[in-house]
Write a structure and sequence with these properties.
Rossmann fold, alpha/beta, 7-stranded parallel β-sheet, 18% strand, OB fold (Dihydrolipoamide Acetyltransferase, E2P)
């Protein structure tokens, strides 16, 4: 039978098996099956360590039957069969109710798959699926390495293994596979051919076979992805943009003159970088990442001022109304009369700074939209309201997206599309990004980094308050907060949810880490509900913080109420603000020096770093206390200790990546599809990814580009048309 990578699995495996693979593993074609690599390899004498198995995990183990005991159950009719299996590293129980499996005899070897359960502190499989190794399996199972595949309840690892073997037999080997990588590239990097790599990954003889095959197959993933991103960079460079060169005597000079501090070396360097790109005809596409408090907003404001000086408009998209209003206030204050052109006290040489949010009254909204449409508003700050129909720009020259991870693909595109010609784009994030992630997820953007903090900042000291191990520390935490307030300063108390039976609110469910997975605490599955703002505020008013001026802030308040409460805190009227993560980004109150994060174990690493950045934004030293019930010796306790132990956001970003599923970094969670990354590790393969990026750029720049490499072009086309590519393009 003629087989190609695009052949439907039903033609090779039969309709029943193909349907199960499609429904449970999303494997549809021969390519899908061959790219479904083993998770690991088992050998007789080396069982998955029982200590490593977690309750709830679905795993496959290679083991030998040690004992089989059947007995009548006491509490109900029927028979219980307990099978003890082991393989050097320990033993575990297989439990069958009212089922006798005569083939499970002492000494038999087999693969056993199931979901790990627990009974009386012992791990066990209840009714596991299994496949015993018999003489019929000699060719497959007598091998030194037995592949264990990512499987499902309906499709076991051994079914996948037999399917790969059937594919081999049906096709006469993997000779039908055409290698998409150019021969000279393979030679440069010492890579196997694709047919050889696929054979070695699925049917290896030695661990070296697996390593060489893995290296080659990682290149397939890295190069295809980098080609997609390199093509987008080239396409963006060819877009017909509008140059916005720097002028003199305008807003930019006014901003520089009004700054109450000297720019850091990093701010100056990035500013020059942006100024040069804005002066070009091709639109800028740049990611500006930096430490919390490193002064990204000032850099963005200077870029916006340059565009306004050149006759264009700049739009700043913020994720919350609180942050948008704060940006509008600070920009207006910095520009002074130059932000009020057309008003009695305004400077006619200036422009208007307009705030556009969903909570504006109808008259104010109409006035703001009119100023945007006629071009008198040079700087427009807003939330998602900027994206609505009816918001039309006269000449949109620059789009600045603050805290880009809060926005999706469609939102970014919708704002870009409001320009008559493609505008320059500056994407900002205060969540530092590991270099490998910047080269993949953000690979279609050029990257600038701000590490240096402005002088005069007090810095933040962080400590974990492990209430289970040291309950008295929580009392001391509230004493420290009172001491700071007594010295004339202010404090935040952050809680995971709002309260008053608020289940289901986006702000009130268990906090998520950056990949959308709820954070686990000390290992218990039945922990109490997360602490709530309303409950904690009331307890503090009546208890350890009695007599202080306490207020609350959360997402269920009206925009007007949120704004009023933030103003009260910023002015010093409120001494302690008990809030959800609505204060996570952008809130700037220099007098706030203490933050107490309740249930800190329920927040992600990057989120904790962001929250901590809200204090010590003035001259006074700050304190961040991470309160948790997680034991110090648990993985969660150690994670919090790592957060407290460093203020380096880039180091924490790497830790954050280590604690979550890498594939979701590329948007599998957002698209609902399987991860693009199967073997490539964003943590371990930095050099390979960098090399693939360089090769991709070179391939597109020489000769006919991908037209000279049809196999590679087909792989790129497959990824580029995948819905995951939408996420990659603008994530």
């Amino acid at each position: 039978m003629a087989v190609t990578l695009d052949t439907d699995l039903a033609r090779v495996l039969g309709a029943k098996t193909a349907k199960a693979m499609a429904e449970s593993l999303e494997l549809h074609t021969v390519r899908d099956l061959l790219r479904h690599y083993p998770r690991r390899y088992a050998t007789r004498g080396e069982m998955t360590r029982l200590d490593d198995l977690q309750v709830g995990d679905r795993v496959t183990v290679l083991a030998q039957v040690r004992r089989v005991v059947s007995r009548k159950m006491r509490s109900r009719p029927g028979t219980l069969t307990e099978v003890t299996v082991g393989d050097g590293a320990g033993e575990m129980q297989l439990v069958f109710f009212n089922r006798r499996h005569g083939q499970l005899q002492q000494g038999a070897w087999g693969l056993f798959a199931g979901t790990v359960g627990q009974y009386r502190n012992s791990k066990q499989f209840a009714h596991p699926d299994f496949h015993l190794i018999t003489g019929d399996d000699d060719e497959d199972w007598a091998r030194a390495l037995i592949p264990i595949y990512p499987a499902s309840k309906d499709v076991s690892s051994w079914v996948i293994q037999k399917s790969v073997r059937l594919l081999l037999d049906a096709s006469g080997g993997f000779g039908f596979v055409t290698d998409p990588l150019p021969a000279d590239l393979r030679t440069r990097h010492g890579l196997l051919s694709l047919p050889a790599a696929l054979l070695d990954i699925h049917r290896p003889t030695t661990a070296d076979d697996v390593e060489r095959a893995g290296e080659r197959l990682k290149w397939d993933e890295a190069l295809t992805l980098q080609l997609v991103l390199a093509a987008r960079r080239r396409a963006a460079a060819l877009e017909p943009g509008t140059a916005r060169p720097r002028g003199s005597g305008g807003l930019l000079d006014a901003v520089d003159a009004a700054l109450p501090f000297a720019l850091t070396e990093g701010q100056r360097a990035v500013g020059e970088e942006l100024a040069a790109e804005l002066a070009r005809d091709s639109p800028m596409h740049r990611l500006l990442q930096g430490e919390v408090g490193s002064g990204k907003t000032v850099v963005a404001l200077r870029a916006m001022a340059q565009v306004v000086d050149a006759g264009g408009q700049a739009a700043l998209l913020a994720p919350t109304e609180v942050l948008a209003a704060q940006h509008a206030r600070s920009i207006s204050a910095m520009l002074g009369p130059l932000a009020r052109a057309g008003e009695l006290d305004g400077d006619p040489a200036g422009t208007k700074v307009v705030l556009l949010t969903g909570s504006l009254k109808a008259a104010a909204r109409r006035a703001a939209r009119a100023a945007v449409a006629d071009g008198s508003a040079g700087i427009v700050v807003g939330t998602h309201a900027l994206l609505q129909e009816g918001v039309d720009f006269a000449d949109l020259g620059l789009v600045v997206v603050d805290e880009q991870h809060r926005f999706g693909v469609e939102q970014r595109d919708a704002l870009r599309a409001k320009g008559t010609r493609p505008p320059h784009v500056l994407v900002m994030t205060a969540t530092p990004i590991p270099r490998t992630v910047a080269m993949t997820v953000y690979g279609d953007l050029e990257t600038s980094v701000l590490r240096q903090l402005p002088s005069g900042r007090g810095g933040v000291a962080s400590s974990v308050v492990p209430v289970s191990d040291k309950p008295a520390w929580l009392d001391r935490a509230w004493e420290r907060l009172r001491e700071e307030v007594g010295a004339g300063r202010q404090a935040y108390v952050v809680c995971p949810r709002i309260g008053d039976d608020d289940t289901g609110s986006a702000e009130t469910d268990a906090p998520e880490d950056a990949d959308g997975a709820p954070q686990k605490g000390g290992g218990e599955d039945d922990r109490r509900p997360p602490l709530a703002v309303l409950d904690v505020a009331e307890a503090l008013r009546e208890g350890p913080l009695a007599g202080l001026r306490i207020d609350v802030l959360h997402g269920r308040l009206t925009p007007e109420d949120k704004e009023a409460r933030m103003r009260a805190f910023a002015s010093g009227e409120t001494q302690v603000l008990v809030a959800t993560t609505v204060v996570e980004v952008g809130v700037d109150v220099p007098n706030a020096t203490v933050m107490v994060v309740m249930d800190a174990d329920r927040f992600g690493v990057s989120q904790l770093h962001q929250l901590r950045g809200r204090v010590a934004r003035g001259a006074h030293r700050g304190l961040c206390l991470l309160v948790t019930e997680a034991r110090e010796t648990t993985a969660t306790g150690q994670r919090l200790a790592a957060v407290a132990g460093t203020s380096d956001g880039f180091e924490l970003a790497r830790l954050d990546l280590e604690t979550r599923r890498e594939g979701d970094v590329l948007g599998a969670a957002q698209s609902g599809r399987r991860s693009t990354l199967r073997l490539l590790s964003l943590l371990e393969d930095e050099e390979l990814i960098a090399a693939a990026r360089a090769e991709a750029t070179e391939l597109l720049a020489t000769g006919g580009g991908l037209a000279d490499h049809p196999g590679l072009a087909a792989e790129v086309a497959a990824l580029a048309t995948d819905e995951r590519a939408d996420y990659l393009e603008k994530a």
